[in-house]
Amino acid sequence: MKGIIVAGGLGTRLYPLTKVISKHLLPIYDKPMIYYPLSILMMADIKQILIITAPTDHGQYKRLLGNGTQLGCDFQYAVQNQPNGIAQAFIIGENFIGDDKVALILGDNFFYGIDLTSELQALTNMDGAYIFAYEVADPDRYGIVELDQNDKPISIEEKPNNPKSNYAITGLYFFDKDVITIAKNIQPSHRGEYEITDINKVYFQRNKLQVKKLDKTIIWFDMGTFQSLNDASQQASKWAARPSGPARPSPARPTRPKEDFQLGRAGSVGQDRW
């Protein structure tokens, strides 16, 4: 399985900060935002990762992350010239994906949970599509999935005015190789974007969409607002204050402020081991 991090877009909700720097390079406590979604892919044991950026930010990501070899990974880069939607990432990454399955994560998504590693690694052998749902107070901001009493999907909507559910679809998706063909055949939405929700709908119509409902032992933030940036940074600082040990399982946890992000040891982020 291969991985894609989508780190493009304009980040308009975070103006004026994002007029001069990519949203996904903003600090979350003592690490750039993009380290957190990168951690999730590495927790899933995904080593080949394509990072898709806006044209103006391409060089910054390459300087920050390099080619990935010092982390035991292979990082490749591509540009999304216009913010035409998340689903376009599969077309941009067609040659990179090849005949493999692929996990896509949005560059502003923040996950933490003790049971995440085993859950993610099990998905490398999945078929169809697999997404995660998280209960939120403001469902009109997200793609929403409606679930039946057995947590099977009933309907999917993109940022509905009258949501049928409070379960947001998080920015972490697992797909089989059919996703490329599906992405090529969807049409732009009324927003003029190729929506990831439309890809999920195709898998749903084929009865090949699985949904995992995350409980509150998992922390998830969409770090696209000033409030969520602050909330994520506060959570990250709490991890940094804890002693090392099994109680701190996530490789995304931040280091102490005096420590730097070190790429000198394979499989390490800061002082953390993968």
Automatic annotation (TrEMBL):
It is an enzyme of class 2 (transferase). InterPro entries: G1P_thy_trans_s, NTP_transferase_dom, Nucleotide-diphossugar_trans. The keyword Metal-binding applies. Its cofactor is Mg(2+). It comes from the Eukaryota. SUPFAM superfamilies: Nucleotide-diphospho-sugar transferases (SSF53448). It catalyses: dTTP + alpha-D-glucose 1-phosphate + H(+) = dTDP-alpha-D-glucose + diphosphate. Residues 233-274 are annotated as: Disordered. Residues 2-236 form the Nucleotidyl transferase domain. CDD domains: G1P_TT_short (cd02538). It holds the Pfam family NTP_transferase. Belongs to the glucose-1-phosphate thymidylyltransferase family. This is glucose-1-phosphate thymidylyltransferase. Its EC number is 2.7.7.24. Keywords: Magnesium, Metal-binding, Nucleotidyltransferase, Transferase. GO terms for molecular function: glucose-1-phosphate thymidylyltransferase activity; metal ion binding.
